[in-house]
Amino acid sequence: MAKAFFTIDKIDEALSALEFSLGLDPTNAASKALMTKIQNKKHELETIEAKKEAERLHKEILQDKLNTAIKGRNYTIIKTPRPAEMLTDAKLSLEDPEDIESQLIFPAMIMYPTTDEFDFVASVSELTTPWELMELVLQRPQEWFQDPKHENFTPKKLDAYMETESGGLIKVGKKASLHKALSTEKPKIPLFDNALRIYLVPRIDAENWLSTWDKEITLKKRTELSV
């Protein structure tokens, strides 16, 4: 019976059955050998379980530190029902997970609304500026800029906008850090699905684009399950 329990990894039941057997015949060599084998297996399983528990607790501690870092920076995160596919597993993290004062790193969705295009950057520091983001994403072949719709796509000719918690838009300084924008008390500029969302618009087209922005539609898109 003890061997049968051991075969299906019912360690405690196997030990109980074996203890009963040895109680009847304490000198049984086969039972004593099996007892040693089962005790070793139990120790192995307990070691594995202890390691898993330690990893779980450490992960919990790191998550608490991350939450503290986000709260301490006065950042807001909005979760949407249908995040963009590339954001499904998006992670907001500390550069040093053990240090809440280290830089926060997050993915970024860079939107070009006047041409209906976007870029995705997997890791951006909160200390990055919109200007630096522009320089990064505009490292493109010359042919791209020869397209008439991209003729004003240079850091000097683009302006940066971010959504506010209330559904509006705010122009952000191109040479101020993202941290400064995200930590502003009013208007509150949130992260979406653990990622930055920023709109780059040619200054010459900004007025027309801004006139088409609808706060109510924007807020609705944040909560609806289908587009």
TrEMBL record:
InterPro entries: Csn1/TTC4_wheel. One of its GO terms (cellular component) is cytosol. Residues 31-65 form a coiled coil. One of its GO terms (biological process) is protein folding. One of its GO terms (molecular function) is Hsp70 protein binding. Keywords: Coiled coil, Repeat, TPR repeat. Residues 96-213 form the Cns1/TTC4 wheel domain. Signal peptide: none annotated. This is Cns1/TTC4 wheel domain-containing protein. It comes from Wickerhamomyces anomalus (strain ATCC 58044 / CBS 1984 / NCYC 433 / NRRL Y-366-8).
